[in-house]
Design a protein that fits this description.
With 284 residues, the protein is α/β, with parallel strands linked by helices. Helix content is 24%, strand content 19%. The two termini are 35 Å apart.
């Protein structure tokens, strides 16, 4: 007797990396080239989607303060796609396993028998450090790093219940701090660190980076004290993802920053050689 149950496709949670199309992993690029359908979030650059011209592309953006797809809706779309397509890509900015709600998607898919594979990507904090050419750790100065977000999911059923409770890890004790999605809380973050943290002070270096690794990359560099009084407020671009990097390891010894702004004109967001993705890939 034949098995009448349908064969389900496989879902790949792929990290798109920090932004530049040529910073995706070789495995991620190969899978995009083979994808039947790609569900991509709002942090994925248009150039990245050029790697999968054959695929159906479905935006499932999730941006704080903007119209977004509810997580439950995304989960259902992935399940439905697994019944129609062989290779399904869930393309996430940065790394899927960092502030990407990957656990919810993995659990939901496995519960209905859909095979899942995770392909890691370069997270924005590491790309930001590379762009600055300053390590997040530094001997005798920084032995620990914390990645933090204060953002809460708009579709979180517990959000309203817990909105009056203190945010977890509001004052982490790591030597170097990297805040994701911290634009609207930037002043509050700086004020609390100055008042309550033993590792930071008003003179602690701060770098704020937007659109890391892309042609639109921007940098604001100063101190926690300047950030705490709102000196970066008018600099922020609400259309770009922002990263706030704080710590003595990030002090630039080659030049002095004073509310500086720079634009990375040397970063090329185009693929250096498209053939690297088509002819030189190993089987993942």
């Amino acid at each position: 007797m034949k098995n009448s149950s349908p064969t389900l496709g496989k879902v790949y949670l792929v990290g798109a990396g920090p932004g530049a199309a040529d910073l995706i992993t070789l495995r991620g690029a190969r899978l995009l080239a083979q994808a039947d359908i790609v569900f991509h979030d709002s942090l994925v650059e248009p150039e990245m989607l050029e790697l999968c011209p054959q695929a159906v592309k479905v935006p499932v953006g999730k941006r704080c303060g903007k119209l977004s797809s509810a997580q439950q809706f995304i989960n259902k779309r992935l399940i439905d796609a697994s019944k129609q397509y062989k290779t399904i890509i869930r393309l996430k900015g940065g790394d899927p396993m960092l502030f990407g709600r990957a656990d919810e998607e993995i659990r939901t898919l496995k519960d209905v028998g859909v095979e899942v594979e995770v392909v890691p990507g370069i997270t924005a904090a590491l790309a930001g450090a590379a762009s600055l050419q300053q390590s997040l750790t530094l001997r005798e100065i920084s032995r620990s790093v914390a990645f933090i977000t204060l953002a809460q999911a708009a579709d979180d059923s517990n959000a309203l219940v817990n909105q009056d409770k203190p945010q977890p890890i509001s004052n982490p004790s790591a030597d170097t701090l990297v805040y994701y999605m911290g634009r609207k809380d930037a002043v509050k973050i700086a004020q609390q660190l100055i008042e309550q943290s033993s590792n930071q002070s008003a003179s602690t270096p701060v770098h704020i980076m937007e659109a890391v690794s892309t042609k639109r990359e921007r940098l604001w560099s100063s101190t926690l004290g300047e950030l705490a009084i709102g000196k970066a407020n008018d600099w922020f671009d609400s259309a770009s993802p922002a990263l706030i990097m704080i710590g003595e390891a990030l002090k630039d010894t080659t030049k002095t920053f004073n509310n500086s702004e720079s634009s990375s004109s040397e970063i090329d967001n185009s693929l250096q050689d498209r053939q690297v993705f088509t002819n030189s890939l190993r089987r993942a």
